[in-house]
Amino acid sequence: MPGFRLNAAPSERVTFYRGGESRTLTRDDINPDSFVTSLRDDESIIVFEGGAYFEFYLTSRGAGHQQAHDGAILSPMPGRIIAVMVSSGEAVTRGQKLLTLEAMKMEHTLVAPFDGTVAELNASEGAQVQVEALLARIAAAD
Amino acid sequence: MIKSLLIANRGEIACRIIRTARQMGIRTVAVYSDADAKALHVRQADEAMHIGPSPARESYLVGEKIIAAALATKAEAIHPGYGFLSENAAFAQAVIDAGLIWVGPAPASITAMGLKDAAKKLMAAAGVPVTPGYMGENQEPDFLAAEADKIGYPVLIKAVAGGGGKGMRKVETAADFADALASCQREAASSFGNAHVLIEKYIQRPRHIEVQVFGDTHGNIVHLFERDCSLQRRHQKVIEEAPAPGMDEATRDQLCAAAVKAAKAVDYVGAGTIEFIADASEGLRADRIWFMEMNTRLQVEHPVTEEITGVDLVEWQLRVASGEALPLKQEDLSINGWAMEARLYAEDPAKGFLPSVGWLDVFDVGHPRDVGLRFELGVKEGDEVSPFYDPMIAKIIKHGPDRNHVIDDLTGYLSLVEIWPIRTNAPFLWRMLDSADFRRSDVTTSFIADHLDELEISNEPDDTIWAAAARAKLDRKEGEPEKFCPGSG
After folding, report:
1. Domain ranges of chain A
2. E strands of B327-427, at which residues?
3. Which residues pair with B389 in a beta bridge?
4. Which chain A positions have a beta carbon within 8 Å of B488's beta carbon?
5. Average pLDDT in the A65-74 region?
6. Residue B257, CB-side half-sphere exposure with 13 Å CA sphere
7. Do B486 and A106 touch (CB under 8 A)?
8. Is the pTM of this model over 0.90?
9. I need a labelling partner for B48 at 20 to 30 A (CA). Which of B37, B61, B293, B392 fits?
10. SS3 of B97, please?
11. Using an 8 Å Cβ cutoff, are B159 and B135 in contact?
């Protein structure tokens, strides 16, 4: 990484965590002419850029949600399950439609990430689900 | 003139109607569901009434509750906004039967235009050009598949009672037809309570052009020129502009004349929009523009028309509903400059545009007077975006001397909005506006799908953004405000 110096004074360097990644930056990495708005508290820095935002955590503890386990089908949003196309134990192929969720008047279909079998199914038609609820788990085919 | 008005809607359109009503000295009444108890439209209205649980079908879609709220608050009139009950003829009739004024067209006009198949037949009979397709009672999957074969792929399946991009599917091949039909019918049944669909030809280089029309109870009907709403994602409009790029005077005259003819065919009163589809493979030509449908209500994108004509369409609606004649005649109306609207959605463009819900801890969209923009906001900082309703939280409108100026200003502005932790489509919007093809007006309704690579959004920071975060941390001084702007002095 450009400008990375282990011997920088503690007040002159910062370590950020994002998901599984961490980076230590020093004053030498900063462009003093950059113009970016940021928000901060004791645990994080939020940088606004191009109409979007980016969060950086100061401890690994706050580094965002744990990554979904392979094969875990999580609800991407709060909503209602309107169709379940598979049953528990069924063999599925990559891209196969598993279930359809409805929120904000739109339908979103969740598909199998790889070939395998439906090892777990916690979804029934008509059920309301919260964001990141585990709806199904696909066990990879050997 | 009416003295009081109940707004049977929520979000930015309720706030927008309240603003004009207040300028006209009309008392305003808001209605709200559980989720909207503290919503902006409730705070802005003179009075507000609770009408039920959060799901729209238990609150904003329950006509009896809305009429009861109007009677209880002694509101004289009901403005439906767009969506919800705005194109529900039975509701319009119930409002009238309750002795209230309906701010909209006669229920018979809504019925005539509401079912798209009947509307097309009516328009064809009135001499307005329509696209090829099947519109009929037979809803058997095998029969519809055969009709699709006859029309020729690709085809579009549309909910007969649909609108706003909901209940619509494009089908590329016969093999995909059955799945698409089932999904479309299910969405149509749940969104509109009517599973009937129609099939029509999918036009290859289509542009969505629509004409604003306005009628009064004295038999006058005028048009307020066209809008181009070609920039759509999954049939949902995201950028609208007026006038339409590449429209010459002769084509505009023919198109607008056809729109007025369509409105006259249903004795139209109030604000309405005639939507056309244009085959733009050889530019805009009057003989390649066909009637699609009529929206018998105010449109989401009405502000661009207001900006180029100087007319307040909500004011006209309220005047017409009060029995007044249209304030201007056709010869008094003209186009001044260019206007564009960007729809800000609470959704994450880096994650397949999934809805983003929660609290708007930061909602810094600047002050409209500072940047010469018009904002139609449904939320303010600190408000909640709930999962129950449409994810559009604001519209940003820019009027200017010409198209290039408008694009420059809107692009620059959208790249500066600061919203957190809700994700929005702001980074996607300005990239679209800034794309070379959009700037040279090379747009069709498949523009977004065709430019997905160029428009790809990532939530992963690049090195510059890591460095910006480091600067924010290392340059921190004791006692500084939480919000920090390096370089702003």
Report:
1. 10-62, 72-140
2. 338-345, 347-348, 354-355, 358-359, 362-364, 374-377, 384-385, 392-400, 418-420
3. none
4. 35
5. 61
6. 8
7. no
8. no
9. B392
10. helix
11. no
pLDDT of residue A35: 64
CB B454 within 8 A of CB B431: yes
Could you read off the pLDDT of A75-116 as tens digits, one per residue?
Answer: 877 888 999 999 999 999 888 889 988 877 677 788 888 889
Domain ranges of chain B: 4-103, 132-201, 206-450
% of chain A exceeding 70 in pLDDT:
81
DSSP state of B322: T
User: Other CB atoms closer than 10 Å to residue B460's CB: what's the count?
Assistant: 10
Residue type, A60: S
CA A10 to CA A7: how far, in whole Å?
9
Residue positions counted in chain B: 489
Backbone angles phi, psi at B237, to 5 degrees: -65, 145
Q: Which helix (H) or strand (E) holds B95?
A: helix B89-97
What are the catalytic residues of B? 297
Alpha-carbon distances of B430 from B359, B383, B439, B450, rounded to whole Å: 24, 24, 12, 16
Assign domain B132-201 to a CATH class. Answer: alpha beta
Q: In sequence order, what E strands does B361-471 have? A: 362-364, 374-377, 384-385, 392-400, 418-420
ipTM, interface predicted TM-score of the complex = 0.84
Q: Does the CB of B426 have a partner CB in chain A at under 8 Å?
A: yes
Distances (CA, A) of A133 to A118, B43, B141, B306: 16, 34, 35, 45
Write the DSSP symbol of residue B283: B
Q: Chain B residue with minimal CA distance to A28?
A: B467
Domain B206-450 has CATH 3.40.640.10: no
Nearest CA to B368 out of B425, B424, B409, B315 is that of B409
What are the tokens at A20? 């599984």
Contact B444, A39 (CB under 8 A): no
CB interface of B with A, residues 177-216, below 8 Å: 183, 186-187, 190-191
Bridge-based pairing of strands A79-84 and A128-129 is antiparallel
User: What residue type is B403 in one-letter code?
Assistant: R
- Domain spanning B4-103: which CATH class is it, in words? alpha beta
Residue of higher predicted confidence among B130 and B86: B86
For residue A69, what is the DSSP state?
P
Task: Specify the CATH architecture of the domain A72-140.
Answer: Beta Barrel (2.40)
